[in-house]
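User: My instructor asked us to take a sequence, write out its structure as tokens, and then describe one feature of it. I'm not sure where to start. Here is the sequence I was given:
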Amino acid sequence: MKLFSDPWAQVFGCVALLSGALSVHAYGFPQIKLPALKLPAMGKLPLGGLPRVKSGGKWLVDPAGGGDAKTINEAVKAAKPGDSIELAPGVYTEAVSIDKALTIKAQGAGASTIESPGGTAVLVRGGPVSFWGVAVTLASSKGAAFWVARGTVSFSSGKISGGDTALLVEGAGSALTLSDAQLSGGGRGLDISSAWVSVDGCEFTGGSESGVRARDRARLFASKSRFVGNGRGVLAVDGAKAELRDSTISGATLAGLSAARGAEISDSGSSIEGGGGPGVYADERSMIKLDRTTIARARSDGAHLAKQSMMVMHKVKITEPGGAGVIVTQGSEAFFSDSEVKGGARCGIEVYSNSSASLDRARINENQCGVGFYGEGRLQSQDGDFTGNAKGPLVYAERWKSKIFLKGNGNQPDGFQELFR
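Assistant: Let's start with the prediction itself. The structure tokens for your sequence are:
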């Protein structure tokens, strides 16, 4: 009889071979034993071991070892695009680099901090990446605490601080959505270069240059946010555009809103309070558009336009400026409709150097003077109210009289009408 000639014996034999031993006493054959398999010795695992093998989806990072990884970078490296990384409470002293789509969230708002003693704490070069409840800080006074070099990032309910810039977003293809966050950097809270950024319900404090700087044709949309104690609340330069809505700027040492070198800032419904400079400043062919904005108690002028810049104001209130209500100089233009300048230490509007002001239903009251000319210029006023100004509705030096052009009607007081033609 040949070995395994019976079909059933063949079946049972194969099963037994796979299990490492063969015993077919039912057929009268001796037991067959396979030699033991010896595996080569493995080297020691790295300190902390390897992240657990995941079936995908969610990762828990715990420095104490109770999760899937002890560091954020371990989890980022092991995770697949689209995975979620949860951070146990604690301080993570590391520089995190992300180049894939991930969600990173703390177990409680502000409970987890990523801290770098020097160099960027979080670098994003991919995405989209979403952060929730995470604090990011850089101990050094130089560099950016959080840097979006490339990609799309959402950051909410967290804090970013340290460095000369708390959060830097660069590149025409980069975008950031920032909500319910607090930013504080030595020079600026948020710096945007060529990128697109949306801000809602955030606070920017302590930036010696600005709370937010937008440059190189960047786009900024900010609503219901607070800019406190910065050099400038919002600074836009080099063709950038910034749009604000229902926000508060207070205690700016240089200017509340500042635009230069072809930039544009528009605002609707915000307030600018106090500060050491003008409430609004525009320079070098820049544009400021204000709608229902209030500017109160600026230490300097309410607004200042220079070097062929333009400002359009609708239903704007400027009260108690330490200087003039609005200064228009160096070929600039100002357009007012249904707006008010009241209680200024100097004139409500001052026109210099071949500049112009156009007023429609403006109320220029209780200033040192209504409109003052300090050089050749143009004033057009329709249905204006210039009552209650200490030195009268219109002031100018005699040598400029022949170079001042006035036009309009319906203005008060009646005596002011005689100055128009």
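For the description part of your assignment, you could build on this observation: The two ends are 131 Å apart (CA to CA). Try explaining in your own words what that tells you about the chain.
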